[in-house]
Each structure stands twice: as structure tokens, then as C-alpha cells.
Amino acid sequence: MKRSGPAWKLTDMWILAVLIFLVLASWLAGLWIRHGEKLSVFDQPIEPAGVERFAGTEGPSGEHQSVVREFLAMKKQVKGMSRKELLLFTRNFMENMPNGKEFTSRFVPVEIDGLPAEWVLAPGIDSSRRVLYLHGGGFIAGSPNSHRSATSQFSEVANAAVLAIDYRLMPENRRIEGIEDCRAAYRWILENGPEGHSRPSRLFIGGDSAGGNLSLMMAAWVRDENLRAPDAVVALSPLCDSTYSSPSIRNNLRTDYMLAPIFGRLLKTPTWILSWLFFFENQCRQANPLVSPVFGDLSGLPPMLVQVSEAEMLLDDARRYVNKARKAGSPVRLQSWAGLLHVWQLFYPEVPESREAWEKIGEFIRQVENNPA
Predict the structure, then answer these.
(1) Is residue 330 annotated as a catalytic residue, yes or no?
(2) pLDDT at residue 260, as a whole number
(3) Residues 312, 330, 336, 354: which is the catalytic one?
(4) Set 209, 242, 248, 275: catalytic member
(5) What average pLDDT does range 81-94 have in this prediction?
(6) By C-alpha distance, which of 97, 53, 73 is closest to 315?
(7) Cβ contacts of residue 305 below 8 Å, gap of 6+?
(8) Distinct helix (H) and strand (E) counts, the chain
(9) Of the residues 3, 5, 9, 236, which has the maximum number of CB atoms within 10 A of its CB?
(10) How far apart are CA 192 and CA 275, in angstroms?
């Protein structure tokens, strides 16, 4: 026997009501996943004592512009790629970055309880001085090999042995597993150097982009674990906020030639859907300080130097982090460059601005050592 028309209409209304409820619940849950402290209060300019700005009189150098043209060409290559194809392209590109470069540093493989790593040793360095370096690559790409331009230069300017680790990457592994690798490496470097078991006379943490995120997270974790604190932390273009809510994420979309191809896709996704995707991939809320250091307690941190380009999408991530940390009493400084690529420091020695940035990192480390807190 067929149902009457009104009965069918009532059933349809219930189905529609359930669907509306599910969509609304998902939207509200998405808001909860990304909800955190209101960070817009830290968008104001940094006080003069905590910031330095650098800009060429005629704009970025010709060498830098040459690298920009390469990225513009790659933007056309990645257009239309699937997520899997983009992942493979990114990994291959990063692994090939050191090709053709000559290094004076030695690269010595080492294993930390199953975690692959390498010591990077510039000529004549003091191996009792050490750096734990955490590479960038969006948590999905990169390795000690891909970042040898940075680690070899860090070894030189810090007069230290650099430990670069091959932490576990997504999507094959969970975000927390990469974090656990960083923590294990820090505990290990407190007791081990290139020549074997020994404690460091000086210890630094450094990282770029995703590795900058990990470096800032590590600084807070070390404090909370009451471990021997690093003497200083250097974060290059760090991702500080995984809610992607800072103004420059959108305002600098057109001027960030490196991150725009990836972030551009994310920004087209409704924020509540993006929040759910983040939660499923990372097993935590976007505003969790574990993945968004700017939402954490930023008091009692060691001296920090944050370098960022004013043209990149993560500019305001850096500004917010530095403002909040300084307000909490931590000695954190920002250095910004006009018109440069995200993590331009990797293009050493070809790009003059990269050489300048590494000189400033060396100066910062010397200042920290000459003026201990």
C-alpha cells in the first residue's frame, strides 16, 4: 500500500532537518577545533628594541629575482597536479636542492635509536658546541640532505656541530611522531656529540618553516620538561599558527611565490572543512600549542631570533609570536627583509640576501654569548 503525499512530505522534512543539524554540528565542531586565544591583539608593530628591518636600496638582488623566476615557472608545472603528484614533486624538488653545490663541511651519518640523522661539521668548528637543526618542508618533505645549504652555514656561523635529523613525515606518519623524533633527538644531543658521549658546552636549536614551528614548540617543551635549556633558538620563516588566521596568510598570497601554490588551494576550502581535515590528519586541534606555538605560554623562553620576509604569507605569524613572547617577558627578536622569498636563507651562497641573513644569525649568537641573561 502506498503512503499518502503528506506522509512523504513529513519524512522529507525530517531528512532535511537531520542533514541541516549534521552540517551545523560539523560547522560548530570546526569552530571548536580552530578556536583559541584572540591573536589580533598582537598585530601591532613590534617595539623598536625587538625588531630590525632590512631592504636593498634598489629592491631584491638580481640573483634573488633569478630564483623567483624559477619558482614562477614551477607554479605552472604544479598547476592541476593531484595531491599525490604534488607531494612527489615537492619531495623530489627539495632533495635535489643541494645538487651542484660544493660544501666544505663534512656530513657524518649517525643513528639515534633508529632515527636517521647526520652531523654537519664545518672546518675548524668546536664540536662541544652543538645545534639541533629541524628542517622545513611542510611536515611532508625535506631531509638532512635537502637542507645542507642551511646546516653547513649554521655550523660555520655558530662555530658548532649541527645535528640534522630525518624526523618522520606526513602523510605516512602522524604529526606527533615527527614531534616525538625531535624530542628524542634533543635528549640525545644533551649527552652525545660527534666524537661520542659528552655534554655540550653550548647548545642551540634552529629550523626553517615547518622546522621553525618545531623549533618554537621545542623551546616551550624543554622549559616545561625542566631540561637543560638551549642557549638560543633561531627560527627562519616559522609557521606559528596552524589555524592560518593571521592577516598576511591572505594579504601576501600574491607575493609569496613559494607557499602560494600550496596555501592557495587550502584557502579555497571552507574553514570548518579545513579544520576537520586538519584534525583527522594531525589528531589534535589547530589551536593546540603542540602544532601552533603562538597559542602557548611564551614566558620563560631562551633568547630567540625570528627571521621572516615581508612578502611571505607567514609574516604576521612571526609578528604575532614575537609580540606575544616579548609581552610575556621572553627575549625574542624579529628581523624582516623586504620582498624576499619564504626561507630565502636556503639559497646560499648564490643570493646576497641569504649571505646577509646568515651573517645576522652569527651576530645574534655572538651577542647572546657576550651578554648572557
Answers:
(1) no
(2) 84
(3) 312
(4) 209
(5) 91
(6) 53
(7) 232, 233, 234, 235, 332, 333, 335, 360, 361, 364
(8) 11, 11
(9) 236
(10) 40
In 3D space, the residue among 171, 182, 263 whose CA is nearest the CA of residue 216 turns out to be: 182
Cβ-contact 173, 149 below 8 angstroms: no
- pTM of structure: 0.89
Residue 80 has pLDDT above 90, yes or no: no
202 pLDDT tier (thresholds 50, 70, 90): very high
Contacts made by residues 347-350, CB under 8 angstroms, sequence distance 24+:
347/63, 347/64, 347/67, 347/149, 348/149, 348/150, 348/153, 350/63, 350/67
Residue for grid cell 622549559? 223
Contacts of 113 (CB under 8 A, 6+ apart): 184, 188
- Average pLDDT in the chain: 90
Please give the pLDDT value at position 369.
Answer: 94
311-335: b (≥16 Cβ within 10 Å) or e: bbbbbbbbbbbbbbbbeeebbbbbb
Domains defined for the chain, CATH in brackets: 50-368 (3.40.50.1820)
Q: Are strands 202-208 and 232-236 parallel, antiparallel or unpaired?
A: parallel
Please confirm, yes or no, whether 312 is among the known catalytic residues.
yes
Query: How high is the pLDDT of residue 27?
Result: 45
Asked if the model's pLDDT at residue 194 lies above 80, the reply is yes
Establish whether 195 is a catalytic residue: no
The mean pLDDT value for 191-212 works out to 97
